[in-house]
Amino acid sequence: MDIPNGGRFVMPDIVSTHFLLKEGDFVADFGAGSGFFLKPLSTAVGPTGRVYVCEIQKALVEKLGELIRGQGLSNVYTLWCDLEEVNGIKIGDKELDVAILVNTLFLIDQKDLAIREMARTLRSGGKFFVIDWTESFGGMGPQSQHVVTAATTTALFESNGFIFEREYPAGDHHYGLAFRKI
């Protein structure tokens, strides 16, 4: 998506190639919002894989369900989830191969609790990809005092059972970080 001054925002078809998803993977998009990553995730994991789109806003869960049915994405499932509650994610322990969190970390109040809860659903060695804002940009994204820096994100994940693996391009106003669960 281009923006008026020539910058570039997160482009799911491009960014998702950095997730290195495989046919048959189980993946969750935590804080899926309007379903920006639905199609590329569904395509990448194929018919034997599974995509959970997790959202706390019930109205968005319903809209995501309609979108999924409309696009015929038979391997995508909506879940109402509260990331900031123990067992608030209705996914079993160690069920996921991959998790993503896009433009959501800055919205979470209890970050350590949410990271531990998301980690619970990820198998040992599973991958976690975080994309968030590098800045407050033209009234979009978080206000500057709510931006969570890449360094802070790395420290949060490392203190909650993850190893930082690499950075990847995620757009002109975002960072992309890859972690592996210990």
Instruction: Determine the structural class based on helices, strands and strand pairing.
Output: alpha/beta
Largest sheet: 7 strands, mixed
CATH architectural name:
3-Layer(aba) Sandwich
Mean pLDDT: 93
Helix content: 10-25%
Number of domains: 1
Number of helices: 5
- CATH level-four homologous superfamily name: Vaccinia Virus protein VP39
**What percent of residues are in strands?**
25-35%
> Strand order within the widest sheet?
3-2-1-4-5-7-6
What does this structure look like?
The chain has a single domain (12-181), classed as Vaccinia Virus protein VP39 (Rossmann fold). The longest helix is centred in the middle third of the chain and has 14 residues, at 58-71. Helix content is 25%, strand content 28%. It has 182 residues and is α/β, with parallel strands linked by helices. A seven-stranded mixed sheet has the order 3-2-1-4-5-7-6, sandwiched between helices. It is globular. Helix 2 (38-45) links the parallel strand 1 (26-30) and strand 2 (50-55). The protein contains five helices and seven strands; from the N terminus they run H-E-H-E-H-E-E-H-E-H-E-E.
